[in-house]
Amino acid sequence: MFKIKTLRIFFMLLFVIINSKAQEKKGVSVKINGFVWAESIYDTRQTVSAREGDVLIFTAPELLDANGNDINARPSFNIFSVHSRLQTKIKAPDFLNAKVSGLIEGDFVATSNDRIGLFRLRHAMVKLNWDKTELLLGNYWSPMFSLYAFPQIVSWGGAIPFHPLSRNPQVRLTYKATENSQFSITALTQLDFKSTGPDGTSSKYIRNSGIPEMNISYVTGVKSNFLIGIVAGYKVLKPQLSFENTANEIIKSEESIGSFQFNVFSRIKAKKNTFRLGAIYGQNMYNFVMVGGYGVSGFNDNGEAEYTNLRTGSYWLDYEKSLLEKKIILGFYGGYLKNYGADKVIVGDAYVRGEHVDHTFRVSSRMIYGIGPVKLRGEVVYNNTAYGIPDTKYVVKDIENIGHFRFVLATSLHF
């Protein structure tokens, strides 16, 4: 079934390519681009990761066998090409005095490990641009993932869990006060990057709340050498529609849980040097592929579960320098994440990523060499994760640090 859906999407894109010339006559222009990507990854230890070890999240914890040997102290190697990408950019005649553009983009990463290699929709959106106002409708980057300042690492995954990663169906209105600053407000739901709850990861928890996640953001310095921005967001989840009380009766649920998140980021350019940095803090950051979630903190008078959030903070810095007219780019990245535990004592079930993680950090160095459409990339990564035992507030105690190295070699052909 998944293969049939993938073939349908592929042939739809093929139809767009063939039909693009005909559309140009109607005032619609279509441009196809993308890249072929091939990478090899070697880890000196087992990892907690996604897509068959490709997207690194944590170093795997110690796992002892009957003889006291660490089962996870075993290297891993794999070769991937699933990040190869197709992108269609569309321009259409003006509508409501606005310039119209669109984007459809996909790769072969799929939406879960068991579907890897199948075509996945990344972006599908329409933009209407007036002089100072822009309206975006469709699937695109979450406001928490700012294109103005994010880690430029070779490894895929957007530097999770230190940096939020999410693409969402959304409606975003942006007002450009000046050429150098802009303010936006976004209402969004969930698709691939979902929250978790009693029935596992699903978009139904935010759907059933009846309230979209809301984000506001402000960025200044868009066209200058010094940029700074801030994003603030709030979402509400409805973990269950009904519950069973002590009399074994099914009762309509009334409880929900709200959570906030913040992202402060900056970009600094100085000749051939670029610094990017950011700080993220929030509650229930599970849907951003970060440590966090929520749990049951008690029960109300009707016997229904009440909830409390886990809090997470992270900090990152990325530096790169271009050489030989940008044929060579050298870079360094460092990130740190801390689990700050729950707001209240958790007395029941917890829906959490990284409940045994107190903190984790990562440092990496990279080199990119490219001439024209071909680029070679190399990266050395050191990741260290501190595991322990969570207390009743999910603050982790008795920690032990486990680290490992990752080596990445990638080649890309852009068209």
Primary descriptors:
single chain, 415 residues, mainly beta, 16-stranded antiparallel β-barrel, 23 strands, globular
Structural topology:
Blueprint (H helix, E strand, L loop, with lengths): L1 H23 L4 E15 L3 E4 L4 E5 L16 E5 L4 E11 L2 E10 L12 E10 L3 E9 L25 E12 L2 E8 L15 H4 L5 E8 L5 E12 L4 E3 L5 E3 L4 E14 L2 E11 L8 E8 L5 E19 L4 E15 L7 E4 L3 E15 L2 E17 L5 E19 L1
Antiparallel strand pairs: 1-4, 1-5, 1-23, 2-3, 5-6, 6-7, 7-8, 8-9, 9-10, 10-11, 11-12, 12-15, 13-14, 15-16, 16-18, 17-18, 17-20, 18-19, 19-21, 21-22, 22-23
Short description:
A hairpin with a 2-residue loop joins strand 15 (257-270) and strand 16 (273-283). This protein has helices at 2-24, 204-207; strands spanning 29-43, 47-50, 55-59, 76-80, 85-95, 98-107, 120-129, 133-141, 167-178, 181-188, 213-220, 226-237, 242-244, 250-252, 257-270, 273-283, 292-299, 305-323, 328-342, 350-353, 357-371, 374-390, 396-414. The chain is mainly beta.
Structure, explained:
7% of the residues lie in helices and 57% in strands. The strands form three sheets. Strands 1-5-6-7-8-9-10-11-12-15-16-18-19-21-22-23 form a 16-stranded antiparallel β-barrel. Strands 2-3 form a two-stranded antiparallel ribbon. Strands 13-14 form a two-stranded antiparallel ribbon. Strand 21 and strand 22 form a beta hairpin. It is globular and about 65 Å long. The mean pLDDT is 94. With 415 residues, the protein is mainly beta.
